[in-house]
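Hi everyone,

Forwarding the result from last night's run.
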Amino acid sequence: MSILPIWHSYERSFEYFIFSRGCTQIYTNIRHVKQDLKNFQPYYMVSVPRIWESVYEGVQKTFRDQPLSKQKLIDRFFKISQRYVCARRVVQNLNLSNLNPSAIDRLIATIQMIALWPLHKLGDRIVYGKVRAATGGKLQFIVSGGGSIADYLEDFYEIVGIDILGGYGLTETSPVTHARRPWRNLRGADGQPLPHTEVKIVDVETRHPLPPGQRGLVLLRGQQIMQGYYKSPEYTAKAIDSEGWFDSGDLGLVTEQDDLVITGRAKDTIVLTNGENIEPQPIENACLRSPFVDQIMLVGQDERSLGALIVPNVEALKVWAIEQGTEFSEDGKTGLTLGSPQVQELFKQELLREVKNRPGYRGDDRIGVFRILSEPFTIENGMMTQTLKDSPPSCDAALSRYD
């Protein structure tokens, strides 16, 4: 099933691949995708993280509509299954933070798997199977690219039994250079290189090669790299050096097993006035764990601290307001509004908790000021591209609009 614009190189390359394998393709769009998944029951689907966020949010809304006792049961199952899949990753050598577990680590993880497996299977029978049914019930795997997919989404889909195969590449690389394989689906990574593809991590300033595990600028070389920009030898020389290495503009590292891990975009790095470099994507992904945050974009270049533009999850806010003994009003006529002190404090605490819980948290990661927007990032208002990525220029305009 296809949902991306057919002119997009990511989508088109995938189409060429599946057609060469005799697959039938169904075209859908944002409005009809959830129903089309049920109607056509695809085996495979390729898209960007925003689509998988949308499906996840729909599932979460369904959970919130259940009686409180059932919500608690579902939450309990997911917490148990989270521990189960984490243990399974260790046993399979697919834990990104511990790719070479000791014999003791593996033994402990194996015992945990055995102990938790019955409850995980019970959760599958009662809850997760219904989630898979909502996606048609036949998905073998989904491919996610075009941006970083948040850890909580990786966890959710692994728990419910739908494999996400992440990948990496750019339009200039036709576009795929790396992809996770079904037999090596390392969550949090962007896969191993395709055949005849080379990757080199270098220091951003000196361009000296860095060893596995060290973060730097990602350079790529292979048959899929473009020959150059059309009638622009000057820009081509900046992008591709004399040895054929293409400057991706991305920051990342390579594991001992040749897994590429993208950690940020060099040009997206936010530099604070104290000189600290902040990569926004991991922090944004952490904030999206909050049920009250639907979309978020960090800002703060040349400022003392980070700021954020936040699109709230209105449905979650309405439920929360009822629990507080009041109601939430989008039009501002009754009850709480986005500007109410209680709502502002809620988001302050949500951001503080999720950012602090992020692995590798530093004090400069803390979000100081934020604006809660009544208008979401969409294609129609220019704050999201047609490939469902936030559009920074438009978001900058939105910041001044709501300042």
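The chain has a mean pLDDT of 90.

Cheers,
N.
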